[in-house]
Fold these 2 entries.
Entry 1:
Amino acid sequence: MTIDLTNRRALVTGSSSGLGRAIALALAKAGAQVGIHYHTEQDAAGAVVAEIRSQGGKAQAFGGDISDAGTVQQLFTELDAAFGGLEILVNNAGMDGRPALCADSDPKTWGKTIAVDLLGPYYCARQALARMLPKKRGVIVQITSVHEFIPWSGYSAYTTAKAGLSMFTKTLAQEVAGSGIRVLAVAPGAIRTPINANVWKNPQGLQDLDRKVAMGRMGEPEEIGQVVAFLASDLASYVTGTTLPVDGGMLLYPDFRHGG
Ligand code: BGC
């Protein structure tokens, strides 16, 4: 059994680096034509496109700020011109914001985090649905986080956005299940990407992080990419409206191994 995404057109937001890049590579490897969306990192997006093409795959870069509805509309118009349609949307782009306790937080940063992590996926999903509903076919995968479940001091905007994205996933899945469209979420745990480099590049930080994971290690971006490719494929044709944690057991409360 192989994951086959040939003849599928996909857009992965925030795929110039980190998880998005790994997801885009995995979808392309399975045969999909992939839109590499970036906000500011045009060169890095170009490098991902080049990497996919060098492996015989099809990809093109698309730029824009997903927290702006008009920009998202423009982005999808460009995608229509280049791809002529869309079967897979991966809402991956996100930010965790500058850590600050709620009492000390800056409303502007809080609002921006919600705009990128929650409004952005909503704007993109709306545009994707306009293309998927008439065809009665499509898959939307939202990249949430274990922090849709686990509170995280200093990151109230991020956890709120991710929990919101989870309920958006369920509600949307319910709305479109009868129209041939599946909507899912993947909740990564601690994956080695630029977003948490400040932690894993520090030996003490890495040790502390590894202790929070039942499997005792961070995940690699490819371990998220392959799961997203599977969920986007027909191998997962009966899966919708749920979150799949891919976290090496971070949600297993590993500290309780030592007694409660
Ligand atoms: C965050 C990472 C963090 C992980 C586990 C993710 O959502 O982006 O920085 O390491 O959750 O706490």
Note: The longest strand covers residues 181-188.
Entry 2:
Amino acid sequence: MGKNTFTLTDNRDGKSYEYDIMSGTRGPDVLDIRSFYKDSGMFTYDPGYTSTASCDSKITFIDGENSELRYRGIDIADLAGKHSYLDVCYLLMIGRLPTKEESNGFDLEIRHRSFVHEGLIRIFDAFPNHAHPMATLGSAVMALSTFYKEHLTLEDEDQFKEMRRRIVAKIPTIAAMAYRNSIGVPMIYPDVDRYFTENFLYMMRAYPGGKMKNIGNGLNEEIKQVEVDALDAIFTLHADHEQNASTTTVRAVGSTEAHPYVSIASGIAALWGSAHGGANEKVMDQLKLIGDIKNVPTYIAKAKDKHDPFRLMGFGHRVYKNRDPRAEALKGLQDKLREELNLDSKLLDVAAAVEEAALSDDYFKDRGLYPNIDFYSGVILTALKIPVEMFTPIFVIGRTVGWITQWSELKQDPSAKIARPRQLYTGK
Ligand code: ACO
């Protein structure tokens, strides 16, 4: 066995440069090229960072070839539906699952931190009717930074901890307010007697002052335990996903010393795009557009046509070139809940036909394009009477813990630097 180094040779002049190979706990080895520019005067070229590890991290591990996803070493299949989402938040933030006592204490703290300043509620008055909830949610989280102006220092561990827990506690309240603003109904305050996920459904559905049930838009619908459990599992499956586009954005903004909630607001902006978290909304639009199983071959052909910009939403992933384990967990949940939640069977039939057609087609097989998490979450969220514009905000609620944990890790990393890539200049 040779040394744990890698030699790069410039064939123009025969000069060689040697770099250390870094090994993580698991996953591919990584070439440490930090001194490459200083040594050679050249940059590396990697648009979209397909071969770049931007940091080292102890939070989440993905093996995309073998459909594996672990939070702090624990397989996602042993977490979703088996531990509460709040216990998973604790796991991500602290590094281990809580004891019963710690779990109760954390739950209580999150309940009490779920209220937002009255001034933040009034910000929603300034937005036009029918504004998309992702736009108002991102703006309100940005505005949250104006209410918590403290300068965070790593030495003040209490303040640091409070800042992380506060955003996890408040995000469902702000998301529910963004929804209520979008349909012009009065805001609902959190109810501390309810668990995190039930509380979110309550803030989405409650109608003040009335006992009448089912008044439209899912308002005043009774909350079933099976719905709370399903949404709780969905939050867990979205909680973190290592250095994806929105997390990379959070880290990049955080690296400039921006306020933590400003960094989170930037993550929300990045998540909104249809190539990322916004895909769940697009999946539903697309399934409705396809409309019937007889139209599936036409849309599969469009997705394969290089001259047609149409892409099959909810298919493909930068890391998973095999099945997305989150999608597998959701598919299991979807099958289990089909009866109990009265899932829209026409939409499910179209989804099943799209999946079957794509999985047996060489175009998708050759490129490793499988259904991702967004392909299944939409159908389940529809059954939970969550309107389509709230699909990506639901993703935000689940992912906020991942973003803030990654942000903390960045802040505690002595080797962290401002995110500042270079370029290959091809202009005049
Ligand atoms: N439909 C049709 N073709 C596709 C699709 C798709 N959904 N996804 C990828 N391809 C094709 C590409 O055209 C390309 O083909 P080529 O090699 O012949 O040029 C090949 O597969 C590789 O695709 P890339 O775009 O290079 O892969 P990348 O890793 O950069 O992109 C992405 C991954 C953005 C997720 C892509 O698969 C996509 O756009 N999917 C649809 C949107 C979606 O579902 N996004 C959610 C991702 S999961 C998440 O963020 C939670």
Note: The two ends are 48 Å apart (CA to CA).
